[in-house]
Amino acid sequence: MTLKPLWLAALLLLVWLVAYVFLLPAVDGLVYGVLKLEPDTRLTSALHFFLYEAPKVLLLLTIVVFGVGIVRSYFSPEKTRKILENKPLLLGNVLASTLGIVTPFCSCSAVPLFIGFVEAGIPLGVTFSFLIAAPMINEIAIVLLFGLFGWKVTLLYVSMGLSIAILAGYVINKLKVERYVEDWVYTIRSQPLNMQEEQLTLDDRVEFGFAQVREIVSKVWLYVLVGIAVGAGIHGYVPENFMAGLMGKSAWWAVPVSVLIGVPLYSNAAGIIPIVHALLEKGASLGTTLAFMMSVIGLSLPETIILRKVLKLPLIFIFVGVVATGILLVGYLFNAIM
User: Fold this and answer.
1) What does the alpha-carbon distance between residue 29 and residue 35 come to, in Å, rounded to a whole number?
2) Across the strands, what pairs with 181?
3) Neighbouring-strand partners of residue 311
4) What is the residue-wise DSSP string for 203-227?
5) Which of 233, 303, 311, 327 could potentially form a cystine with 315 if both were Cys, beta carbons 3.0 to 4.6 Å apart?
6) How many Å separate Cα 322 from the centre of its chain?
7) Of 267, 255, 243, 248, which is closest to residue 327 (Cα–Cα)?
8) Could you tell me if 244 and 277 are in contact, meaning their C-beta atoms sit under 8 angstroms apart?
């Protein structure tokens, strides 16, 4: 007897929750128990990072794509475009950036939401505003920043992060770069649902969510693994003292060098903010260190590797260039006023 889509989804959600909750203990048991690797070594750190982050991101990727698929079943591209027409573009960037604050997704798991936005016909610049804000500014970052640095630094960081997300999305939209989105993304958008959206049952919408998982995850999973492998290698083998030394310098090139160091790394706010705190204790300047943090969680190499599946190279370079410029300005501004 075949399970109805809704019951199958409920069963798989239970399996997903168990896998997510017990993932870290399972990885700890494998690395330290089965493999008996010594803790605090570079190899162990890199391997543990990969074995934990790779399935975690794939789990998040799957659940986000599934959820976006169900939401999309309620809104055809035509309806969404009608809702958004005659709206000021900058207002759309502001709304998307603000939405990014309350969505607890890392850069990798924000990508399927970006795909969903594009599929729905939302302007490309607005989708980029969300893509930038979602990992860079969220409640985890706000709570940790407030606890470690106080409300002034937190408020400055949030305001600067929002400014980057809003203005970068606005600039990208003005450049008219839709032709640099991979054709398969628009092909998904152009495919109609099997029935009129008003006639779809909940089982139909769940089935559409499953179809989105098969379609999108199958196209990006390898990029996820490659990106996290790169991040794991640098996570395990780049010395923290080396970075602190560079970011403690007052030379003009300290900010861009820190951004270049941060881009290949992969982490979320919860992982990078304690490192930022340690770097500051070792003498790194605030502006340079926050620019490093922004580059890690908002402009990472793993994210750009994943984005390459949906964006052509010219748009990748435009995205990186616009966001990097904003991050550099934030770094220099913080160094000047703090």
Assistant:
1) 8
2) 311
3) 181
4) HHHHHHHHHHHHHHHHHHHHHHHHH
5) 311
6) 17
7) 255
8) no
Whole-prediction pTM value?
A: 0.61
Question: Quick one: DSSP state of residue 181?
Answer: B
Give the Å distances, CA to CA, from 295 to 178, 289, 290, 304: 24, 10, 8, 12
Structure tokens at 155: 């408020």
- The per-residue b/e assignment along 243-263, b for 16 or more CB within 10 angstroms, e otherwise, is bbebbbbeeeebbbbbbebbb
Distances (CA, A) of 239 to 45, 61, 236, 244, 281: 12, 30, 8, 9, 16
Residue type, 184: W
Residue entry with tokens 């949906």: 310
pLDDT in single tens digits along all 338 residues of the chain:
567 888 888 899 999 999 999 999 999 999 999 998 988 888 898 898 889 888 887 887 788 778 877 876 776 545 555 555 556 667 878 877 777 775 545 555 556 666 667 766 778 888 888 778 877 776 656 766 776 677 888 888 888 888 888 888 888 888 888 888 887 777 765 455 444 555 778 888 888 888 888 887 887 787 778 767 876 776 677 776 676 667 766 677 888 988 888 877 766 665 677 677 767 766 778 888 888 888 887 777 767 777 787 788 898 888 888 888 888 988 888 888 77
